[in-house]
């Protein structure tokens, strides 16, 4: 007797039919691209600012490192669950696919649209920082108008590159991610091998008293804030799930890429923090928004700051390429499923969803030209909500579709998935409590999204009848 759970819901079959008539994404990506996409997207401006904030909240080297380790363990626990979902549902488009299949179209709509808009906004923010770093390295490029031109130009440049085809975008990601990882590791090695004199100089010039250490409830709050900063900084380790149907062997390569990404990202972050702490006392890191540059200046002299800014520029280019790849896949998947205009699901001969990429580029340019900080702050509320829905989706699918093919099964299930889910819920609650300014607006945005969801569904049905 056949089990009804053997067959996926009818709603999951429709996209395949749609895609067959509109061109297919090319199945040409592998594990190393997945790691490159995650490393390229994750290791960016966050490593520059986060250590200064965390050191200010937790002015103790053991506590400073403990939040980085705990953040990495949280990512590792979540990686197991995300690897099962990504290997079992190998569709491009990110976490949107998991929530839609397990919970329903409206949940998928929330995850997809918040993910798409926030990723477009992130691409814009990265482009702006690229322009600012360019202005710092080359003063002739400085100035508000020139910075806008550079930011828009960089976004359009990556649009043209990715428009050629997925192979162009993937090769660019592989090269830039490998270069920036190597550059950061060289800086780490230089700090440890040649930073002895800089460490001695910092220690002798450090005459300030130790920073006051919070205790009791303020210490708990400081620890939560530090952990939040780490989790935000390491987010992006699941980049491969945006390319599920473009991976040659998703059952094997998706889990390997996810775990490889977590270990690679955390290794680089821990080494960079250790190198900075080796050169600088903690009180000189606290509140320093460019502690990595300060440490490099102590080691390399006047060349230190330009070296780090050049590495950061390369790092941000890799990040921008990854973000534009991500957002084009998310909008493509929603269009395939009737949550946006189906024409946007068109794919060119190079395997690029061109209309999706074009619209994502337009939104990114509009974010650059306008004021988008408040929009991104509101959408960041959905960042953990999306993870919460993904981990909940694993529980739902395990129960409702027990016979669904699972090339990889989450180790430690249900405990590891439960820990990741509880952690996400607590983190989401902490975001609501600590961000009274933007959380209510995000909840209002959630309420208003339902009529938009119904309107889009109605529009798609009307278009199908004509």
Q: How would you describe this protein?
A:
This protein is mainly α. The protein contains 19 helices and no strands. The chain has one domain (22-403, 420-465): Up-down Bundle (Amino acid/polyamine transporter I). Helices cover 75% and strands 0% of the residues. Residues 1-21 have low confidence and may be disordered.
Key words describing this protein structure:
466 residues; mainly alpha; Amino acid/polyamine transporter I; 19 helices; 0% strand; globular; disordered N terminus
Which stretches of 5+ consecutive residues score pLDDT under 50? 1-21
Helix content: over 70%
CATH architecture: Up-down Bundle
CA radius of gyration is 22 Å
| Overall SS class | mainly alpha
- Major sheet characteristics: none
Q: What's the β-strand tally?
A: 0
CATH topology-level fold name = Amino acid/polyamine transporter I
Mean pLDDT: 86
The secondary-structure element order is: HHHHHHHHHHHHHHHHHHH
What form results from the Cα inertia axes? globular
Question: How do the helices and strands line up, and which of them pair or pack?
Answer:
Blueprint: H1 10-22, H2 31-42, H3 46-57, H4 61-88, H5 96-102, H6 105-137, H7 144-163, H8 166-194, H9 196-205, H10 217-234, H11 250-279, H12 282-285, H13 291-300, H14 304-336, H15 354-369, H16 373-379, H17 381-400, H18 415-434, H19 439-465
Helix pairs in contact: 2-8, 2-11, 2-14, 3-10, 4-10, 4-11, 4-18, 5-6, 5-17, 6-7, 6-14, 6-15, 6-17, 7-8, 7-14, 7-15, 8-11, 8-14, 11-13, 13-14, 14-15, 17-18
């Amino acid at each position: 007797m056949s089990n009804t759970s053997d067959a996926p819901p009818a709603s999951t079959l429709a996209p395949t039919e749609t895609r067959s008539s509109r061109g297919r994404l090319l199945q040409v990506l592998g594990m190393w691209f997945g790691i490159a996409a995650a490393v390229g997207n994750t290791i960016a401006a966050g490593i520059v600012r986060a250590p200064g904030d965390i050191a200010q909240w937790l002015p103790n080297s053991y506590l400073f490192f403990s939040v980085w380790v705990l953040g990495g363990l949280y990512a590792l626990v979540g990686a197991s669950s995300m690897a099962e979902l990504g290997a079992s549902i190998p569709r491009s488009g990110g976490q949107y696919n998991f929530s839609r299949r397990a919970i329903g179209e409206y949940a998928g709509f929330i995850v997809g649209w918040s993910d798409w808009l926030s990723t477009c906004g992130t691409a814009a923010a990265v482009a702006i920082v690229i322009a600012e770093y360019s202005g710092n390295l080359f003063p002739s490029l400085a100035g508000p108008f020139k910075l806008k031109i550079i930011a828009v130009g960089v976004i359009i440049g990556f649009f043209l590159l990715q428009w050629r085809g997925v192979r162009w975008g993937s090769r660019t990601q592989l090269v830039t991610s490998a270069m920036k990882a190597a550059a950061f590791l060289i800086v780490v090695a230089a700090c440890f091998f040649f930073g002895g004199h800089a460490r001695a100089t910092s220690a002798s010039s450090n005459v300030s008293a130790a920073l006051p250490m919070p205790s009791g409830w303020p210490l708990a709050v400081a620890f939560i804030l530090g952990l939040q900063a780490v989790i935000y900084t390491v987010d992006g380790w699941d980049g491969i799930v945006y390319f599920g149907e473009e991976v040659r062997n998703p059952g094997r390569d998706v889990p390997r890429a996810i775990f490889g990404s977590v270990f690679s990202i955390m290794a680089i972050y821990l080494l960079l923090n250790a190198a900075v702490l080796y050169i600088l006392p903690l009180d000189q890191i606290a509140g320093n928004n460019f502690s990595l540059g300060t440490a490099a200046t102590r080691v390399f002299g006047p060349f230190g700051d330009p070296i780090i800014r050049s590495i950061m520029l390369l790092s941000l280019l890799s990040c921008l390429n990854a973000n534009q790849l991500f957002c084009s896949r998310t909008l493509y998947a929603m269009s395939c499923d009737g949550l946006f205009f189906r024409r946007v699901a068109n794919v060119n001969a190079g395997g690029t969803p061109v209309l999706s990429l074009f619209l994502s580029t337009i939104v990114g340019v509009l974010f650059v030209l306008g004021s988008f900080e408040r929009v991104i702050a509101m959408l960041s509320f959905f960042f953990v909500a999306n993870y919460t829905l993904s981990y909940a989706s694993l529980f739902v699918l395990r129960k409702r579709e027990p016979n669904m093919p699972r090339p990889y099964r989450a180790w430690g299930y249900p405990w590891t998935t439960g820990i990741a889910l509880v952690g996400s819920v607590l983190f989401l609650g902490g975001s609501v409590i600590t961000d009274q300014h933007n959380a209510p607006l995000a909840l209002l945005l959630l309420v208003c999204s339902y009529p938009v969801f119904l309107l889009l569904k109605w529009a798609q049905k009307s278009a199908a009848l004509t």
